[in-house]
Amino acid sequence: MLVNIFNPKTPLHDGAVIISENKIKAAACMLPLSNDKSISKGLGTRHRSAAGMSQESDAIVVVVSEETGKISIAKDGTLIVDVKEDALKQILIKNIVTKRFGNEEIKKRKARLKEKIKEIKKNKKTEENEGKEKE
Questions:
Q1: Is the whole-model pTM more than 0.70?
Q2: Cys bridge to 50: 74, 76, 125, 135, which one at CB 3.0-4.6 A?
Q3: Can you tell me the distance from the alpha carbon of 129 to that of 95, in angstroms, rounded to the nearest whole number?
Q4: Domain ranges of the chain
């Protein structure tokens, strides 16, 4: 799907693709441009949009230069140009996969804690009821 979207002859070619929860949510999107003066003048709208989007959100933005095919990544307003494939994998694993599984573990712990609290409350009510019956 992504390869088709970024084919220069398709109507969705220009603009960004938004991926959330492993699904393509939108294509041909216009993103906010960064005004950061440290971004090389040799980089165009695509790279400025990546930096701008990462400044305005918690998104990690992957950019592929149409001219050179080089990959860049923007996070927290910082643009890293010409990222090699292994480095890109590590960045994405660290910032997406690890956080997602980390969040799942936190959710599981919270659920277990809630169950323990319910059990304690249930036991307390049972003890109170048994105490009243003895009176």
A1: no
A2: 74
A3: 51
A4: 84-135
- What distance in Å separates the CA atoms of residue 43 and residue 79, rounded to the nearest whole number? 11
Count of other CB atoms within 10 angstroms of residue 73: 20
19-59: pLDDT as tens digits: 888 888 888 888 889 988 888 888 888 899 999 999 998 88
Condensed to tens digits (0 to 9), the pLDDT of residues 105-129 reads 667 767 777 787 777 778 777 777 7
Taking the CA atoms of residue 87, residue 16, residue 22 and residue 75 in that order, the dihedral angle to the nearest 10 degrees is 40
Q: Which residues contact 135 (CB under 8 A, 6 or more apart)?
A: none
Element (DSSP H or E) covering residue 24: strand 23-29
Which residues 6+ apart lie within 8 Å of 83 measured at CB?
71, 72, 73, 91
